[in-house]
Structures are given as C-alpha cells and as structure tokens.
Amino acid sequence: MEQNPRQQNVQRMLGIINQAITQAERGNNPGVTILVAPGGDQAGVYLRIVIGADIPMQRIALAEELGLSGGETVGLFKWAESEGYVRPNYGGSSQVSPGTEVPAAGLDHLETKGYELIGELPNPQERLAVILEAAIRAVQRDDSLDEAAKKRQVGWFEELKIVVRTFGIEVAKAVWRGDLPPM
Questions:
Q1: Is the whole-model pTM more than 0.85?
Q2: Measured between alpha carbons, how far is 17 from 2 in angstroms, rounded to an integer?
Q3: Distance (Å) of CA 137 to CA 25, 27, 140, 149
Q4: Which pLDDT tens digit goes with each residue over 134-162?
Q5: Domain that includes residue 157, residue range
Q6: Is residue 182 part of a domain?
Q7: Res 3: pLDDT
Q8: Both 105 and 145 in a single domain?
Q9: How many domains are there within the chain?
Q10: Structural contact between residues 176 and 160, judged by C-beta atoms closer than 8 angstroms
Q11: Is 161 a domain residue?
C-alpha cells in the first residue's frame, strides 16, 4: 500500500522519536521531553533527551531532522497525536529560547498504532529489562543508600530481570505484587 506524503513524514518523525526514547531508556531516563512551540520564530517540535547525569542533555529539532518548517512539524505532530500515534503527557512548560515558554510533555513510548506505522513493535520483556538496568544504575549512584542497601536493591532488580526474561511480564507482575516469591 502506497503512503501519502503526510504518512511518510509521520513515519519518519515517529522513527526519530522512537530512537530518542530508546536512547533515553539505555541511559537513566525512561522517556523524552517534547516541547511544542506552535508559532513565532521558534515554531517547531523539540525533543530533549536526558541520558545520564554525566552526559549533557541532547536536543533534537524535528523540523531540521525532517527537512520541514517549524509550523509544518507542529501540524504533523498534532495530527499524529490526534490520530493516536503518540500520547504525550502534558504538564508544565519550558523555555526554547530566552522569554519563550512553550508546553512541555513527557513521552516514554509510542502508541501501538505508532509502532505499527514504523514497523517496530517493542518486546515488552526487553523494554522492562532495559528499564530495570537504568534502575540498577540509579541505585548504584544513590548516595543516600549505604552499601548493604544498594547491594540488596541491586540484587532484587537483577532477580526481577531474570524473572522478566525467563517467564514474561505476567509472572514478573505477580512477583512484584508479592503473589509469587522472587528466585
């Protein structure tokens, strides 16, 4: 089936967003921040990716990546949102330049329709394992925990990773709720 230009651009945009989310997950952050500037000199959709405390925040201007104007990119993103490809969690605002506040939203995954469009349905077991890895790194860097507490929490997360990879999400949920004992 041939796609129209809007679908092709949405597909490219969702691919960029998905790569950013995956990059953030491999760091410490299970998602990206999306800034939507609807008009003016800074019109566009911007991604902010926080990978880790020691790594500077990465910024991506979707208009530049897609070769579109800022206004076209805002329209494309809003259309993708209205069609159910993405569901950003809006809350707050952020500056894109001095004196320019725009709505900010968190996004930690595409919707199923979005993954289908880019041809990549994520493996939920591996996604959870990546998030658990990030949690382990956060515990290891937490200065408020003593070494024994860190070791205990890291061990628990390691066991949960094994459960997730071996038995799947439903068994991991049962362990999390306490319905089943950990390893």
A1: no
A2: 23
A3: 12, 9, 5, 14
A4: 788 888 888 899 999 999 999 988 888 88
A5: 124-177
A6: no
A7: 66
A8: no
A9: 2
A10: yes
A11: yes
